[in-house]
Please model this.
Amino acid sequence: MPIEDLSKTRRLSRITVLRRGGLIVKTLETELWLDSAGSSEGLTLISHAHSDHIPRNLRKVISTPETACILKIFRDGFDWISLRFGERIEFGDVRISAEPSGHVLGSSQFLIDSGDERLVYTGDLNVYDSIVLKGAKSIDADKLVIEATYGSPNYIFPRREEIYAKIIDWIIRTIKSGEIPAFKVYALGKAQEIMKLVNTYLKIPVITSWTVSKIAEKYVDHGIKLSYLPIYTDEGLEVFSQGECVYIASKRRNPPSKKKIRWAVATGWALRYRYSGFDEAFPLSGHSDYPGLIRYVEESKPREIYVIHGFVKSFVKQLRRRGFNALELRESQMRIDKC
Ligand SMILES: [Zn+2]
Model:
């Protein structure tokens, strides 16, 4: 059959997004779950390995090799289809590709292209460069599913370099006062960013908890240089007991030491909230702030925007003011759009 005839007989496949115990993307022939807590059946696209993005029952997974490596530290027994950054795979009547989302090692945005429509799912998104990762670049989309963790105009972060300078200053002051600076942070992402910061600007050993160490191994395996000593090794324990070091953990538990341990957190919420019981709180986030999210949308130029997580109502309102067709994607059996 000549090519022109083929195109006439081809059914146009539009993309529907719905939320039913999790995010689902549907076309005429394909159903995909996105990072969904409720997806015990079918194929799930996992944007990154933070626990709130991983289904309880993992069956069939599409993810980057980096994300799969980290997943396999904690979970096993799932079928995995590899999707490297820049690669494209065909599945049913769609093509799926992944681009970096700038959030943590391996974190991806997914482009689902039906030929008729392009849907982009950002996952957790950071548009700013960090000392470890490049910021996410916008992808042209017809439909955009975007997170709004910090989608309120109240969240405008200081420049990352300023936050880095304050963290370094606090570490130096704490060590000079004869105490041990310690960070309670996400084991995936923030821990490695602080580790890299210390490695780059200070000649001080970094001691790490078990989870932080295991994930840091995967960063190193994927070409990101990090220097650290796990607390569960003789050398790590010895350096820690001497006290001139930085400790990084995902739980606030003091390893044995004669010196006082001073704890800090690093999270975007520190911009507006106090963290009682901690000596310092740095507004360092793996997510975009409000201006970063707006910039992403303006560059992506979507016809329809579905907002999820965080300041959903506020972000929808702000996008509508800017002339975008934005919706809150509510939990529902209802279809947002018809195939
Ligand atoms: Zn995340």
The chain has eight helices and 19 strands. The helical segments are 3-9, 65-74, 160-176, 190-201, 210-221, 234-242, 290-300, 312-321. The pocket of zinc ion is lined by residues 48, 50, 103, 124 (CB under 6 Å). The chain has a mean pLDDT of 91.
